[in-house]
Design a protein that fits this description.
23% strand, binds 5'-O-[(S)-ethoxy(hydroxy)phosphoryl]adenosine, alpha/beta, ligase, seven-stranded mixed β-sheet, nucleotide-binding, ATP-binding
Length: 654
């Protein structure tokens, strides 16, 4: 079917069998959406019952986005335990059902199937180990693990005793890990000897050792054996998980926490300064993660659901662990990468475990698309019913390939727009309700009120089609509550630019049907392979090198990664550009932040374009990085317009 307004865009109405099975069809969506925004208290009072409460809530929504009075509370007087919701309450009905399928990096290594009964015992044991190490309700625990079941046990064990976890992606460097341990004053770091990934091994324990040199002496380290590889050991500080688990008690009482008590902190990049610790709560977050998981992915009993993210990112929190397990689902945890041993791996895993819902990022789809269709077509993907996309805008070519080659035209694609800050999906088509448009994040989830603002005036634009900045008019239960240790930063980052709204940092288009299309970040955050990177972070890593006088970092279009990292570097007077220095600076950023922050291009810049007041004109730098020299705009306000000519003449030829 084609779109009447844009005949060049093919659109995909839901098929009859998809509608028949779906939890929500078009009429139900309209009805439920209207109810969710007209009477949020009644709507969420009902859906708050999706999870088990120890003391049921009597208050539902207590929210103000008013300038000077930002306040967000959901189910404020209820109490619960998140781990009991994800495990204990399923034991009567599905103790022997697989909760987690673990698929290791090496396909020769057998998969592991962990039932809800086993999950219960292992989480209880981990909870008891943490208690032995002195962790109590409200304490912080940093988790720095590979994608192994112990990562899920660690999260749920923290939740069980009311401790707050902060996961650090295993690709981050010792420096980044130290900053996060110190940032939340963690008592314990949980790590593993090594992290196998794509046939290589990251030495996690030795990274943790290096990080702990910069932390308080009292921080303890719990070490999980993954590869059995050599590690150094400090008695009194390091604890052996595999030894302690043999002795640990099988039962740990789930601690009662308030709905608004923090469940986790997750650091994420912003447009200024160092990453901030996004704080999510227990009650509202869990309700929202569970509900979106069920409805967006049209989850049904017996499904095998796979999200390929890493638990180091929010997608892994909400859609590998908390959402699926709260719903009693079977969730797959994959340790590896899409291209190891070859580009068939994802599809072989789908075939092997008869995956029904598959959720991944556009960067992976683009990378696999380039390898040819045979890697997909040689696998039996007949179990697949639904495909999902997350992390960045999906280009129509990738969407079409995903739809035609992977989904064989029979699996709806849910393009889910959301953020670390939002806890769960905010914009997404629902499979049985909406006509899909390749590249559109489509419609608000229940309770979500997107608005498009004029970036200059900050006024709401009511008519469609239109384009502007994407804000939210009101709260939803999964919304972050604060920045750890810096509530002022929370208010300043999300509520200061556009008064009365939550500002997402993204731009969007709303088409004539009222459907939303995300156009990308409007701030100084770039999206590299679906990972958020603050340009300020990369700049501060670069200027920390003795040879660098000044640096400016921008994003530029990259065929596979979506955006690449483009660095303009001005060297100290006594330094000369060289291939060796180029390599050294790349490695420097990798060690300062982690491999995900590796610069794609470094251009030596004798000078940077600045206004007379000394402000770097990033707009011009972005255009040069994009090779778009015709649209540089007004350069007359520059202190020295000739630097632009020099940068254009020397635009790195990459
Ligand atoms: C981008 C990941 C377009 C967006 C869950 C957002 C997307 C940032 C989509 C959040 C999508 C995420 N379409 N853009 N479906 N999903 N983004 O915090 O720019 O790692 O602000 O959360 O990713 O990234 P984060």
């Amino acid at each position: 079917m084609t779109n009447p307004a844009h005949p060049e865009i093919r659109v995909y109405p839901p098929a009859a069998d998809v509608i028949a099975r779906a939890h929500v069809d078009a009429a139900t969506y309209d009805e439920m959406y209207a109810a969710s925004v007209n009477d949020p208290d009644a709507f969420w009072a009902e859906h708050g019952k999706r999870i088990d409460w120890i003391k049921p809530f009597t208050e539902v929504k207590n929210v103000s986005f008013a300038p000077g009075n930002i306040h967000i509370e959901w189910f404020g007087d209820g109490t619960l335990n998140v781990s009991a919701n994800c495990i204990d309450r399923h034991l009567d009905t599905r103790a022997d059902q697989t909760a987690i399928i673990f698929e290791p990096d090496d396909p020769q290594e057998p998969a592991e199937y962990i039932t809800y009964a086993q999950l219960h015992r292992r989480v209880c044991r981990m909870a008891n180990i943490l208690e032995t190490m002195g962790v109590r309700k409200g304490d912080r625990v940093v988790i720095y693990l590979p994608m192994i079941p112990e990562a899920a046990y660690a999260m749920l064990a923290c939740a069980r005793i009311g401790a707050i976890h902060s996961i650090v992606f295993a690709g981050f460097s010792p420096d980044a890990l130290a900053a996060r341990i110190n940032g939340c004053d963690a008592k314990v770091v949980i790590t593993a000897d090594h992290a196998p990934r794509g046939g290589r091994k990251t030495p996690l324990k030795s990274n943790a050792d290096a990080a702990l040199l910069h932390c308080k002496d009292s921080v303890k380290c719990l070490v999980v054996k993954r590869t059995g590889g050599q590690t150094t050991w400090i008695d009194g500080r390091d604890y052996d998980y595999n030894e302690m688990v043999l002795e640990a008690n099988d039962y740990a009482r789930p601690v009662e926490v308030n709905a608004e008590d923090p469940l986790f902190i997750l650091y994420t990049s912003g447009s200024t300064g160092q990453p901030k610790g996004v704080v999510h709560t227990s009650g509202g977050y869990l309700v929202y993660a569970a509900m979106t998981h069920e409805i967006t992915f049209d989850y049904h009993e017996g499904d095998v659901y796979w999200c390929t993210a890493d638990v180091g990112w929010v997608t892994g929190h909400s859609y590998i662990v908390y959402g699926p397990l709260a719903n009693g689902a079977t969730t797959l945890m994959f340790e590896g990468v899409p291209t190891y041993p070859d580009a068939s791996r994802f599809w072989e895993v789908c075939e092997k475990h008869k995956v029904t819902q598959f959720y991944t990022a556009p960067t992976a789809i683009r990378a696999l698309m380039g390898q040819g269709d045979e890697f997909v077509t040689k696998c039996d993907l007949s179990s697949l019913r639904l495909l999902g996309s997350v992390g960045e805008p999906i280009n129509p070519e990738a969407w079409n390939w995903y739809n035609d080659v992977v989904g064989k035209g029979k699996c709806p694609i849910v393009d889910t727009w959301w953020q670390t800050e939002t806890g769960g999906h905010l914009l997404t088509p629902l499979p049985g309700a909406h006509t899909l448009k390749p590249g559109a994040a489509m419609k608000p989830f229940f309770g979500v009120q997107p608005v498009v603002l004029d970036p200059q005036s900050g006024e709401e634009i009511h008519e469609s089609p239109t384009e502007g900045v994407l804000c939210l008019r009101d709260s939803w239960p999964g919304q972050m509550r604060t920045v750890w240790g810096d509530h002022e930063r929370f208010e300043k980052t999300y509520f200061a630019d556009y008064k009365g709204y939550y500002f997402s940092g993204d731009g969007c288009r709303r088409d004539e049907d009222g459907d939303y299309w995300i156009t990308g970040r409007v701030d100084d955050v770039i999206n590299v392979s679906g990972h958020r990177m603050g340009t300020a972070e990369v700049e501060s890593a670069l200027v920390a090198h003795a040879a660098v006088a000044e640096a400016a970092v921008v994003g530029y279009p990259h065929e596979i990664k979506g955006q690449g990292i483009y660095c303009y570097v001005t060297l100290m007077n006594d330094q000369e550009p060289s291939e060796a220095l180029y390599k050294e600076l790349r490695n420097w950023v990798r060690t300062e932040i982690g491999p995900i922050a590796s610069p794609d291009v470094i251009q030596w810049a004798p000078g940077l374009p600045k206004t007379r007041s000394g402000k770097i004109m990033r707009r011009i730098l972005r255009k040069i990085a994009e090779n778009d020299f015709g649209a540089l705009g007004d350069t007359s306000t520059l202190a020295d317009p000739s630097v632009v000519d020099d940068l254009i003449a020397n635009r790195a030829n990459k």
